[in-house]
Structures are given as C-alpha cells and as structure tokens.
Amino acid sequence: MTTATAARTAPRAAATGPGPAWAAEMTETPFWHAAAPPEPPSGRAPPAEADVAIVGAGFTGLSAALHLAEAGRRVVVLEAGPPGAGASTRNGGMIGWGHKARLAPLAKRYGEGPARAMLREAQTSLNWTRALLGRLPVDALHRQTGRFLGAGSALHFERLAAWARDEAPALGMEVEVVPAAEQAAHIGSELYRGGLYFPNHGLLHPALFHKGLLEAARNAGAEVIDHAAVTAIAGAPGAWRLATAKGPLTARELVWAGNGYAARGGRAFARFARRLIPVPSFIIATEPVGENRMRSLFPGGHAHVDTRAAHSYYRPCPWGERILWGGRASLLPLPPRVAAARLRDQMLSVYPELGDLRLTHSWTGNVAFSFDGVPHIGQIDGVWHACGYNGSGVAMAPYLGMRLAERLLGPDQGGAVRGSTGFDAARFRAQPLYGGNPWFLRGLEIYYRTRERLEGVARIPRN
Ligand SMILES: Cc1cc2nc3c(=O)[nH]c(=O)nc-3n(C[C@H](O)[C@H](O)[C@H](O)COP(=O)(O)OP(=O)(O)OC[C@H]3O[C@@H](n4cnc5c(N)ncnc54)[C@H](O)[C@@H]3O)c2cc1C
C-alpha cells in the first residue's frame, strides 16, 4: 500500500454518529499514524555498552544519533515507548521559525548582540532542516507553502506590523504585512484584522519525517531500543551507568532528548524537569471536506496561526482533503473529547460555516517551554541536552540535535570548536519552588484570557 493510500484509509465520518460533531469512530490516535504507524514492540534489549547513550527517540535524539553514528560513534538510543512516542509524530507539521521570544525582553536579559544571535538561529535551523529533509530515505511530503499569522484584533495587527517593520529585517526574517483588505488571498475568513505572511515557511508530514530520520539513523549504525525507559542514572562523563526498563547499559557520554517528557524518567532527569514547563498541545482532524470548499477556506494552501490566547494553528492535510486544527485547548491536560470540543469552537470562530463537519481524530502531545522563551543546548551535571523549543521544534529540534552531536565530537582536526550556537549565551537555570509540576499555569490561563479581552479580541463562542 502506498503512503498516500494508507493515509486515506484513516477513519472517515460515518453517516450516523453519537453527536453532530463526532464521527462514530473518532480515534485518539494521531492522523499521522495512518501513514507512519508506531513500530510494534521489538523485544530487543540494550547492548552492555555504548560510546553515547541518547534518551528519547524524537527529532532531537535521532538527529543527534544520526550525526554521531555517521562520525563513527557507537550510539544507543533508548526510548520509553515506540520510537516517536513523543511530540515528533504528534505535531502540526508546520515548519518555520516560531520563536516565542521577542527581541526587547531577550536583549534586556542577555544583551542586544546575544539576543539577536539567538533569534537568528531560527532562520538557520529552517535552512538546515530543509536540507536534511532532502537526504532522508522517506519523503516527508514537505512543501514550502508559506504561513499566514492572523491578527486577533486591531491592536494585535498594529503590533505585528511594527515588528515586521522594525525587527524582522535585521533578524533575516522574510515577512509581508497583509492588511485586512488583502487577507482574502490567504484565508477564507473575515475573523482576522489582517496579519503577516511568511513566504518561506512550509508544511510537512511529521510522522513520515520522523520515520525518515529513524531509518537514516539506523542506516548509519545507531541502535534504537524501544520500550526502554531510562529510570536511573549514576556515574559521570566517561563512565555513565543507566538503568532501563530492559536492563542496564554503560556509556561514555549521556544525552537527554526528552523535551516535554522529563517525567518519563521518574527522578532520573529531575534536573531538566526543574528547568522546563511541560504543556499539552491538542489537535483535531475533520472528515474530508471537498476540494472546492477547501480551496475557499485555504485559498493559499498555507499553514495558519493566529495571535489569540487559544493560539490556533491549522492547515490542510498533505492530501488537501481534511483540516487539521491545533491549539492550546488548555495549558493543562484534558481528555481528548473535551479538548476536541474546545478546538471545534476555535475552528467555528474562524470558519462559522463548518458546523456540519464531523471530527475523526483528536490527539495530544507535550511541548516544553523554557522560562526565558528560547531553546537550550549544552551540558548540566555532565548530561548533554537540547530542549525547550517552546512549541516550535520541527526545524529547531533536528538542527540542535545535530549541533549537540558536533559538541560531543569536539574540535575539528584543525582545532576549531564545533557545535556552537546563538543559544550558548542563554542561562538554563532551575527555578525556585518548581520541581516540574507547573502549578502556576491555571493562573496564567486566566491572565491570558483577561489580557486578550482588554486588547479587543473577540471571545470564542461555545457551540
Ligand atoms: C500537538 C503538538 C503540535 C505541535 N506542532 C508543531 C508545529 O506545527 N511546528 C513545530 O515547529 N513544532 C510543533 N510542535 C513541537 C514539536 O513537535 C517538538 O518541539 C519536537 O517534536 C520536539 O522533539 P524532541 O525530539 O525534542 O521531543 P519528543 O518528540 O517529544 O521526544 C522526546 C522523547 O523522549 C522520550 N523520553 C522522555 N524521557 C525518557 C526516558 N526517561 N527514557 C526513555 N525515553 C524517554 C519520550 O517518550 C519521547 O518519545 C508541536 C508539538 C505538539 C505536541
């Protein structure tokens, strides 16, 4: 069966369902898994030793594994579930630069030059990951579609336009300001008050991207051990001892690539839990919509995001027939059906005419926010890491996985340092009164909603 055919066998809406919004067979499995299903449990145990042990088989861990194995290192990747159990096969497949950080607060914290260097990494990561896609053994269905960022209010539009004028050019970011009167070329909705268009962003199929990276890492000689959660670590660089669900392993170097899933290691990686905020993100897929209707909703075929607190992100699926709608249904975990109802409300606030559409999929995954809004790469207590992508890791995670591999490999033959990035100046500190359970998110949710009311953003009606 071809990839496209397999994806099309994903659940379709039944003629009769339990309610107007749901297809009878709505599944909590990501839409992406129809074309690239998780591998069945292998029964393989880790070898006794490795040069480098990598915890986590998502984009970060596999990219690090690929580049280390290509350089001749014996690499073992240990994954708590099947490879890709985390965000890497669950995301929206939007590839671009999505730093949440803005120049002014970042410059206040780190200085103007370092802040600019951090923000410039976004474009570097996009270029680098695009080139990586071209050398993987699986087609990730990547297209440079562009992305439209819709302004939720007139004030938001003013701020976006000022950013595009004053900040973006110096950061090497290509962007066009789209006044409300011209947005019909980008979106079949009148909700927004104009927005920005980023022509070099794109869309891909994240689970096929992950599959390509997994195959490439294995082809280069990396071993990937599934269902082998790392539950304890001891030792130091040069002689790490790891306890996993499938037996022990010793390694000279240890990489943590768990991003939003620090809790999967129990206390073993508490040092990262204390530095990152795990936040769930949610996505729904609709039943097939029909070609003409899709064209009127997505006239440019772009990726879409907006400035509202619910942070909607949505796109056509790679075959153009369904809408995939993601958002921050909540900053805290929610049952998929409850999340789906909230995302459907978001969708109807943009496209009120879609009330008859059934939902076929609803799933979730964790992202990791950092306290300063930028990713972090380096070593803490001897453990290497790259993490904290703040919800935008499709380009950044593979790129920093590669940079991490360069760091581990050390200076090149001429003695030049490898693996440096703009993020080297960022401080990755544990937070007082915080152990990994983000008790403050409920308050933050209320703050965001109050602020957006004051900024003139229309409330999302409940349907
Ligand atoms: C719903 C959703 C939508 C998103 N949409 C986008 C988007 O459109 N564009 C974009 O740029 N980004 C998006 N992101 C973010 C992006 O997916 C992530 O930033 C990226 O996948 C992070 O990759 P990673 O390899 O670091 O982490 P992950 O893919 O989360 O992998 C971490 C892995 O580590 C494993 N692990 C953790 N602890 C242990 C342990 N102790 N032992 C063994 N294994 C362990 C986990 O099981 C997991 O598989 C989205 C994320 C989500 C959840």
From TrEMBL:
<protein>
    <submittedName>
        <fullName>FAD-dependent oxidoreductase</fullName>
    </submittedName>
</protein>
<dbReference type="InterPro" id="IPR036188">
    <property type="entry name" value="FAD/NAD-bd_sf"/>
</dbReference>
<feature type="region of interest" description="Disordered">
    <location>
        <begin position="1"/>
        <end position="48"/>
    </location>
</feature>
<dbReference type="InterPro" id="IPR006076">
    <property type="entry name" value="FAD-dep_OxRdtase"/>
</dbReference>
<keyword id="KW-0560">Oxidoreductase</keyword>
<dbReference type="Pfam" id="PF01266">
    <property type="entry name" value="DAO"/>
</dbReference>
<feature type="compositionally biased region" description="Low complexity">
    <location>
        <begin position="1"/>
        <end position="24"/>
    </location>
</feature>
<feature type="domain" description="FAD dependent oxidoreductase">
    <location>
        <begin position="51"/>
        <end position="407"/>
    </location>
</feature>
